[in-house]
Write a sequence for this structure.
């Protein structure tokens, strides 16, 4: 999750610099869930994006056998040979399937200095066997949701390492009044239970889920905190709505491979 709302003013310049590591593509520090618990099931689509050294930097969700959705600020400017995706394991150090990226597609509206557009797709070099998650069709205030992530579990920046085991946190979509500088048309204000639980450094790109007909569906991906406090979970978090961006997402991942051009007629 990024450090603060991207629509920053000059008065917040110092805070912007403090949290630059949240959004820098090469950053080694990214958040997870404060107040979460160990995952109580295996999420086949859960994706840990890791540097080639094995260092966790962001989360994501498998939405097709060869496509992962994440936050734009996680992958913009990142070299394809600089990271891998471990998919379908609650343990970010082993198990599941490890895939290499072949393409990064950042939403054209993404601007680090403005709200909205913080979503990207990573095409994998080869399809994986793990079951993808479906995109949700509705996102309404009051909807119970679940967050997943491997971000740090203590609230202060650099206060600890990312946990090895995936964490989950049950929360809900709340009114946008709780989130500063949010674009309500394309972003979700996600509650911080008890005023002290929520996404933190390292959770960026991780999924927000809803349970529909006994199946998980993807509502959003972690973008940034809903206030300017460097301490995590002191306010609701802002998640990019995949519901709002579903047309763009589906339009990219469902594009069929181009047919080979027909041979020219003989002379």
């Amino acid at each position: 999750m990024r450090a603060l709302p991207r629509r920053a003013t000059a008065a917040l310049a110092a805070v912007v610099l403090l949290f630059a590591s949240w959004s820098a593509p090469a950053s080694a520090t990214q958040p997870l869930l404060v107040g979460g618990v160990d995952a109580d099931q295996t999420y086949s689509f859960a994706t840990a994006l890791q540097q080639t050294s094995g260092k966790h930097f962001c989360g994501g969700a498998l939405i097709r056998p060869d496509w992962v959705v994440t936050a734009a600020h996680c992958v913009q400017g990142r070299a394809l040979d600089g990271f891998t995706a471990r998919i379908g394991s609650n343990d970010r150090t082993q198990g599941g399937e490890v895939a290499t990226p072949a393409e990064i597609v950042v939403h054209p509206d993404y601007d680090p200095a403005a709200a909205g557009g913080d979503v990207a797709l990573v095409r994998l070099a080869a399809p994986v066997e793990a079951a993808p998650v479906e995109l949700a069709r509705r996102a309404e205030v009051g909807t119970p949701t679940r967050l997943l992530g491997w971000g740090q579990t203590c609230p202060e920046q650099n206060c600890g390492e990312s946990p090895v085991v995936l964490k989950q946190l049950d929360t809900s979509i709340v009114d946008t009044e709780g989130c500063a500088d949010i674009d309500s048309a394309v972003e979700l204000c996600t509650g911080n239970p008890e005023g002290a639980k929520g996404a933190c450094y390292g959770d960026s790109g991780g999924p927000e889920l809803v349970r529909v007909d006994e199946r998980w569906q993807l509502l959003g991906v972690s973008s940034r905190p809903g206030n300017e406090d460097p301490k995590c979970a002191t306010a609701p978090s802002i998640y990019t709505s995949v519901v709002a961006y579903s047309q763009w997402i589906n339009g990219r991942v469902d594009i069929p491979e181009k047919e080979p051009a027909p041979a020219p007629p003989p002379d």
About this structure: The first strand starts at residue 33 and ends at 34. Confidence is low (pLDDT under 50) at residues 4-32, 257-261. Residues 222 and 239 are 4 Å apart (CA to CA).
